[in-house]
Design a protein that fits this description.
This protein is α+β, with helices and mostly antiparallel strands. The chain contains six helices and 21 strands. Strands 2-10-13-12-11-14 form a six-stranded antiparallel β-barrel. It has a four-stranded antiparallel β-sheet with strand order 3-9-8-5, with no helix packed on it. A three-stranded mixed β-sheet has the order 20-1-21, with helices on one face. β18 and β19 form a beta hairpin.
């Protein structure tokens, strides 16, 4: 079985190419009518074959151009947001205005701006002073805490030592009192032995000794000295304990008031954030003192500034679109997409002016146009923009997609096609035949032939109705 040949997908020509073909077709029809007239005369005369005109296949240059239209847009835009909540003084521009780089877009009220600057400076000073005060207090709390910890240790030792010493003194007093009491008891026992002789000298001496013992028990100098010392130490212990209570209170207060490492880090961070905020405000004020200026030449597309109003910080004020960096956005079909590549040169016509451009971007995803066809967005960067460019207008573009130099070329109108592909008519040995060809790139008038023809081959430049392959004809070279 013979293999079926794959049908080649037909790629529609662009509009400019179609116009050229239509013009050439008109001339071709006129020529065909003339040939047909000549053929019919010949047939009627009965003495001549049908006449066809032929031309040689030659070499030439072919440039493929994709022509379409698109919309002029900016490559760079900037939206200005309100850096300050300060009263607006003047608005020098409006939506649609063209501005130059450095031109003032709007300005803040000078008096209100000066007040805001003073307020920011005072906030910064207050913030720094508050931080220094907090650190001084914290150092004081830490010092008091250290003092309390040291004193509590000393006081605890002093109280312990004093209480132990009082115990020793009380033990001495007890031992002394016991000793005197024992001595008195022994004297009483001895007195009993002499009670039958009360007038004796021994009896009298024992009574004296008993009286002395009794007095000694009540007025012993050592006991009184020890008792006095006990009292003094008990007073010291009470004072120590009172001071220790004060130190415990000081320790508790200092511990609760002093900052830990986390607290100090937070205080330092909060202080730094406040400082940054104040510095940013002062920086914004410095930039705004001369008015908010355009960063580049462009057109104002949105204007939200109202004189006398006080915007909130971050409010959208102005949108500026650059006319220094401009592009044209076009949409291409799947047929033209294979011809387009980044870097290709483009002729861009805007309001009658021609600019040079280059293909800068090809989108990676197709969209659907108003007709429901899938198209791919392509961006063309204009390399020599000037004041004649208007954003949002239509631009005509001619993309120079490919060039073939000194290749075999034939006029587009001589190429025919059927289910098997492209072909041209030629005359061999007086017989009209089809020659299958493979085409390359094409311009509006010429098409490159990569296979099927040789330079100098005679091909039919115009085939009139009634002529078919295999027919005997008379070939006339153009």
């Amino acid at each position: 079985m013979k293999e079926k040949k794959e049908k080649k997908e037909k790629i529609p020509m662009d509009k400019a190419k179609k116009k050229k073909i239509i013009k050439r077709s008109i001339f071709g029809v006129i020529a065909a009518l003339i040939v047909l007239f000549m053929v019919m005369n010949s047939i009627n005369a009965g003495n001549a074959l049908p006449v066809v005109y032929t031309m040689p296949v030659s070499r030439g240059d072919v440039e493929q151009i994709v022509s379409t239209s698109g919309t002029v847009k900016t490559e760079e835009s900037k939206t200005y947001f309100a850096p300050l909540a300060v009263k607006i003084g003047t608005a020098n521009t409006a939506a649609g205005d063209s501005v130059k780089k450095g031109e003032i877009l709007y300005a803040y009220d000078e008096e209100a701006l000066a007040d805001e600057k003073l307020l920011a400076e005072l906030k910064m000073q207050s913030n720094e002073g508050e931080y220094e005060s907090s650190m001084i207090k914290n150092n004081q709390y830490i010092s008091e805490l250290g003092e309390a910890n040291i004193n509590l240790g000393v006081l605890d030792q002093q109280i312990e030592d004093s209480e132990n010493y009082v115990k020793e003194l009380n033990q001495k007093i007890t031992d002394k009192q016991d000793s005197l009491a024992l001595e008195g008891a022994l004297l009483q026992i001895s007195l009993l032995d002499w009670q039958n002789d009360p007038g004796s000298e021994e009896y009298m001496n024992l009574q004296k000794l008993i009286q002395l013992n009794t007095y000694e028990q009540q007025h012993n100098e050592e006991i009184e000295m020890w008792q006095k010392e006990v009292k003094e130490y008990e007073e010291k212990i009470a004072a120590y304990k009172e001071y220790r209570s004060e130190m415990k209170s000081q320790k508790s207060s200092s511990e609760s008031s002093a900052m830990n490492s986390g607290g100090k880090s937070k205080l330092a961070a909060d202080t730094q954030m406040e400082k940054i905020n104040a510095e940013e405000t002062l920086s914004a004020i410095a930039e705004a003192e001369g008015g908010i200026k355009a960063d580049f030449d462009g057109v104002i597309t949105e204007m939200g500034v109202v004189e006398g109003s006080t915007p909130t910080v971050g409010a959208q004020m102005v949108t500026l679109e650059s006319t220094e960096k401009v592009k044209v956005e076009i949409s291409v079909s799947k047929y033209d997409l294979q011809k387009i590549a980044v870097g290709q040169e483009v002729d861009v016509t805007i309001a009658g002016n021609v600019y040079q451009g280059k293909v800068s971007k090809i989108n990676g995803m197709a969209t659907t146009n108003n007709s429901g066809a899938a198209v791919v967005g392509v961006e063309i960067k204009i390399e020599n923009p000037d004041s004649g460019i208007f954003l949002g207008v239509e631009a005509k573009v001619a993309v120079h997609t490919d060039v073939a130099e000194q290749v075999l070329v034939v006029p587009i109108e001589v190429i025919n096609s059927d289910l098997e592909g492209s072909f041209v008519y030629a005359v061999e040995n007086g017989i009209l035949i089809k020659k299958r060809i493979t085409t390359g790139i094409s311009s509006n008038t010429l098409c490159e032939v990569t296979e099927g023809l040789n330079e100098g081959d005679q091909i039919v430049s115009n085939v009139v109705m009634g002529l078919e392959e295999g027919m005997a004809v008379t070939a006339i070279g153009e």
